[in-house]
Amino acid sequence: NGTLFGDGVCARIKEQLLKEFNLHTIVRLPNGVFAPYTSIPTNLLFFDRSGPTKEIWYYEQPLPEGRKNYTKTKPMQYEEFADCLAWWNNRTENERAWKVPVEAVLKQNDGVVSVNLDIKNPNGQADFEHLPPEQLVADIWKKEERILAILAEIKDVLKVQPSTKENKQR
What we know:
- The structure is a single chain.
- The chain is an alpha+beta fold.
- The chain folds into two domains: 9-120, 3-Layer(aba) Sandwich (Rossmann fold), CATH 3.40.50; 129-169.
- The chain contains four helices and six strands.
- The protein has helices at 9-20, 82-88, 133-160, 164-169, and strands at 22-28, 43-48, 55-60, 97-101, 106-109, 112-115.
- It has a four-stranded mixed beta sheet with strand order 2-1-3-4, covered by helices on one side. A two-stranded antiparallel sheet has the order 5-6.
- Strand 5 (106-109) and strand 6 (112-115) form a beta hairpin.
- The radius of gyration is 25 Å and the shape is elongated.
């Protein structure tokens, strides 16, 4: 996300790469793969010379279950790419993989080239922190209403049962 993710000259270089080569796959590595040297997310870009780019496959490499990040002493392991390698020759869209037409990343507006390779995963879980505030409020309100309904049910159940004092007096 460093060298090729700027505007101006960077955008023109990206445009040239997309028009002269086939950027067929971008593998997104988890954050921290190169920590402590950089905190910038890392993408592996795969090109071939089969012609201009028509569509780009994205594959999001997840952190292993129970792992929060990578470190210098606990780096990423080759075995963690098993799912990606299995997907590679039999590509289908799934929760980790999606494809986009080149027109979604390469745009021209009044002669100004814009290339955005940072296409979010449309198949992944919604990122809670990036939901619109209105949706967050609506979701919280709905949960609050459910909590109140459950509390009302509990209150009704407690009314029906004899109290603990009455049971002790008997």
